[in-house]
Amino acid sequence: MGRVLAAIGRRLRRVEPPPRVVDWAIAVCVACEVASGLYSFTRGTPSGAWVFWLHSSVGLTLAALVGFKLYRVRRRVAAPASWDRFTPVSVLQAVVTLAALGTGTFWVLGGNVPILAWTTLNLHVGLGLLLVPLVLWHLRGRYHSPRDVDLDRRAALRTGALLVAGTVAWRATETADRVLGGATRRFTGSKPTGDLYDTETEGGSFPVTSWVADDPDPVDRESWTLSVRGLVEEELDLPFEAVAGDADGPDASVAATLDCTSGWYTHQRWGGVRVGDLLESAGADDDRARYVRFTSVTGYRWSLPVDEARDAVLATHVGGRRLSHGHGAPARLVAPGRRGFQWVKWVESVEVRERGDPMQWLVTLISGFD
Ligand SMILES: Nc1nc2c(c(=O)[nH]1)N[C@H]1C(S)=C(S)[C@@H](COP(=O)(O)O)O[C@H]1N2
Ligand SMILES: [Mo]
Question: Looking at ligand 1, which atom is closest to the CA of residue 216?
């Protein structure tokens, strides 16, 4: 075993880029991982699959770079006499980086050890975000201008080779995953619900999830109305029956996949009213309308471009039954092709607008905190 590792070590050292190239490549990889990780939350259709591939390949490249780096500094770190005030944070950074890489890989390989409401994927995201301040602090103490970086042809080739190796390793994990029976993961990495949670949840065989702290009291169907406002000829205030349809059930029905960024998905048939039909009833101003904003009784909200919004559904039913409170009764947004956090629950207002709503990102995070 030891001899094999030593042989691998010798081989690896032959492709090791120069120290400052390694250091800068680490910074670039971390930036790429944070950006692609966050960006991946906005991609819910297979055309966005590349961002997940990129995230995996660069992640594995980063693992090799961190290996080189730790090997290089091992003596300095082991001798506390040589520590300065930046060293403790650097050590913490190494630990967090390894933990982020480890949780990411573990998840990809099918593992999940939930901690309270957090899946291992949530933990991975948390650790990744924690790296941002740590890396910035590290750069403060150990900054070398990119001009000092000895990136010659050979170093560039070696760095490129590492990226190729990272991509190959990622393909290998995909294959391993399939062999281990994880083939039902979506391109987003999400797994079917049953594997992750007790599926015996109320009114639907999938989990009830709140992004952060949204947890309203049940909304009374009798007094609830759905308001349609903004760039419309006629403002509407619709009672539950007008949204849920008459005795024959909802007017619209759509099969769509709810894919939560904590790493699970469920495919369901949703019933309710097409947003396009709502906009038509209200006489939306087609010349000026660009976005439609959906707002929850809790303030949680999301906007969709108007053309996409028309095909979205405000669902009162799932799987042929009325939505339960946890899943957003009386009505929740079903936005096919969007990640779960954009599927606003407990919707009470629809607004036709000229502009998007950048604040929605913040609002979803703080909604529910008093
Ligand atoms: N108002 C509101 N809507 C919300 C959320 C929330 O916290 N508040 N969570 C979102 C998230 S993160 C997901 S994954 C889905 C979960 O829907 P479910 O609870 O029906 O599974 O609802 C979304 N809609
Ligand atoms: Mo979610």
Answer: 1
Question: 165 CB less than 6 Å from ligand 1?
Answer: no
Looking at mean pLDDT, say which of 6-15, 106-115, 285-294 comes out highest.
285-294
What secondary structure letter does DSSP report for 55?
A: H
Q: Which CATH number fits domain 225-366: 3.30.559.10, 3.90.420.10, 3.40.50.720, 3.40.630.40?
A: 3.90.420.10
For ligand 1, the distance from its centroid to the CA atom of residue 44, given in whole angstroms, is: 15
pLDDT digits (tens, 9 = 90+) for 257-307: 999 998 899 999 999 999 999 999 999 999 999 999 999 999 999 999 999
**Residue of minimum CA distance from atom 19 in ligand 1:** 208
Buried b (16+ CB within 10 A) or exposed e, 139-156: eeeeeeeeeebeeeeebe
Please name the residues in contact with 305: beta carbons below 8 A apart, sequence gap of 6 or more: 290, 291
Beta bridge partners of 293: 303, 351
Alpha carbon of 234 to ligand 1 centroid (Å): 30
pLDDT tens-digit readout, 200-246:
454 457 888 876 678 899 999 999 999 999 999 999 999 999 999 87
Dihedral (Cα; 319, 316, 350, 225), 10-degree rounding:
-170
Ligand 1 binding pocket includes 301 (Cβ within 6 Å): no
Pocket test for ligand 1, best of 121, 186, 260 (most atoms within 8 A of CB): 260
Q: Range(s) for CATH 3.90.420.10 in the chain?
A: 225-366
Which two three-digit tokens encode residue 231? 């760039």
Residue with tokens 């919004």: 309
Q: Cβ distance 279 to 229 under 8 Å?
A: no
Coil/strand/helix, residue 234: coil
Q: Whose CA is nearest to atom 7 of ligand 1?
A: 210
